[in-house]
């Protein structure tokens, strides 16, 4: 949804949704800023005062998951203050989309270029609190129902689907697709290798993966908003579109891989220490952890590959050869996640 479409919609469904979220008060749009596709920051005027909101257009199922996170799951374990400040969700009448409306947050996303130790530790502590609170929690079956599972099945299903997707590509040397064919063949080689490695990876997750828990599912640093306070840092975890159930290391590996390898050891140590304060969990050694981290990373990349091929099949596919070549590099860059001596 573009900014122009947002302007038009504000006079109708979104206007009504905003008024409902703000207790029926009259709302006037003062300014707007597009943050990314389908996400906007709005300045709305209520009785002469401007209030900053974030509005997000999404699939209704995603909006439902996000509402469950903010209004049911996190509050159920006393962690509502760590989640997104959701005001309301309103589905369009045609059922094709929904608005999520949030309070705009002070603070900034977690930095990876020059990470501040205190900020990173605050984010690690927040996600450790989520993980330990939901380990084997009765609500976890509901989380899995709505968000899916990120265990070994996520790995095996996406690797298998990636092989099928790559074989489905309509590539032809006569059309000058030589680079795309080379990338496809390289990806097929890597996917077949990952298929062969599945038994070992499954055993590693079963023996050392720890209890299943609630996962953010997309724990990039940009989804952790940190605000400095006199007593330390406050953290809000936002954009729970990919929330799921599974081993906690799925989230940990997602976050760690965004940092330079030189930072990963102390980040892992911070997570270990945070978990030790909260629960009696055995922490695997480096060999098992590297195998688990790789399994999670490969599963995410296989999923991205599947949906990239699917997106190319639905429209302009001119960007696909470059994406395939990049994915070969991304797959080769995964191991080892945790540097070893």
How would you sum up this structure, described in words?
- This protein has 341 residues and is α+β, with helices and mostly antiparallel strands.
- It folds into two domains: 3-103, Phosphorylase Kinase, domain 1, CATH 3.30.200; 108-332, Aminoglycoside 3'-phosphotransferase, Chain: A, domain 2 (Alpha-Beta Complex).
- It is built from eleven helices and ten strands.
- β4 (86-91) and β5 (98-103) form a beta hairpin.
- α7 (178-208) packs across α10, α7 (178-208) runs parallel beside α11 (320-332) and α10 packs antiparallel against α11.
- The protein starts with a helix and ends in a 9-residue tail after the last helix.
What tags apply to this protein structure?
11 helices, Phosphorylase Kinase, domain 1, 2 domains, 341 residues, 3-stranded antiparallel sheet, 10 strands
List the helices and strands and how they pair.
Elements: H1 3-10, H2 13-21, E1 28-36, E2 39-46, E3 49-58, H3 60-76, E4 86-91, E5 98-103, E6 108-109, H4 117-134, H5 140-147, H6 152-168, H7 178-208, E7 212-215, E8 224-229, E9 232-237, E10 244-247, H8 249-256, H9 261-278, H10 286-313, H11 320-332
Antiparallel strand pairs: 1-2, 2-3, 3-5, 4-5, 6-8, 7-10, 8-9
Count the DSSP helices. 11
End-to-end span in angstroms? 49 Å
Helical content stands at: 40-55%
Global Rg = 22 Å
CATH topology heading of the largest domain: Aminoglycoside 3'-phosphotransferase, Chain: A, domain 2
Quick description:
The protein is an alpha+beta fold. The chain is 51% helix and 18% strand.
């Amino acid at each position: 949804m573009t900014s122009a479409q947002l302007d038009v919609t504000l006079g109708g469904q979104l206007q009504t949704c905003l008024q409902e979220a703000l207790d029926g008060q009259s709302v006037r749009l003062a300014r707007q800023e597009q943050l990314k596709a389908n996400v906007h920051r709005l300045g709305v005027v209520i009785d002469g005062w401007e209030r900053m909101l974030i509005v997000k257009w999404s699939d209704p199922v995603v909006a439902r998951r996000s509402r469950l996170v903010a209004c049911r799951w996190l509050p159920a374990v006393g962690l509502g203050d760590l989640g997104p400040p959701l005001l309301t969700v309103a589905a369009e009448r045609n059922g094709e989309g929904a608005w999520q409306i949030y309070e705009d947050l002070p603070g900034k996303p977690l930095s990876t270029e020059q990470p501040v130790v205190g900020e990173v530790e605050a984010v690690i502590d927040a996600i450790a609190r989520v993980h330990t609170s939901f380990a084997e929690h009765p609500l976890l079956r509901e989380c899995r129902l709505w968000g899916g599972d990120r265990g070994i099945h996520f790995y095996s299903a996406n690797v298998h689907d990636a092989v099928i997707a790559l074989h489905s590509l309509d590539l032809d040397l006569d059309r000058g697709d030589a680079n795309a064919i080379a990338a496809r063949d390289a990806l097929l080689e890597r996917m077949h290798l990952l298929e062969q490695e599945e038994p070992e990876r499954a055993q590693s997750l079963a023996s050392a993966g720890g209890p299943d828990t609630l996962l953010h599912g997309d724990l990039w640093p940009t989804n952790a908003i940190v605000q400095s306070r006199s007593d330390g840092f406050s953290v809000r975890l936002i954009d729970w579109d990919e929330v799921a159930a599974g081993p906690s290391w799925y989230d940990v590996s997602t976050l760690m891989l965004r940092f330079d390898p030189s930072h990963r050891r102390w980040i892992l140590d911070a997570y270990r220490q945070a978990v030790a304060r909260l629960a009696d969990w055995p922490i695997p050694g480096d060999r098992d952890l590297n195998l688990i981290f790789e399994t999670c990373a490969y599963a995410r990349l296989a999923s991205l590959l599947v949906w990239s091929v699917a997106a190319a099949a639905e429209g302009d596919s001119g960007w696909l050869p470059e994406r395939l070549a990049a994915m070969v590099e991304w797959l080769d860059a995964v191991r080892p996640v945790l540097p070893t001596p």
